[in-house]
Amino acid sequence: MKETAFQEAEEFGFHTADIVQEWMWDDDVSEAIRRNIQRLTGEDLVDEDFDSSVDGVIVWWRDGDDEETLGNTLVDAYSVLGDDGPMWILTPKPGRKGAASSSTIQAAANSVGMNAAMPLTADDDWNAIRLSSFGKGR
Question: What Pfam families does the record point to (predicted)?
Answer without folding.
Answer: DUF3052
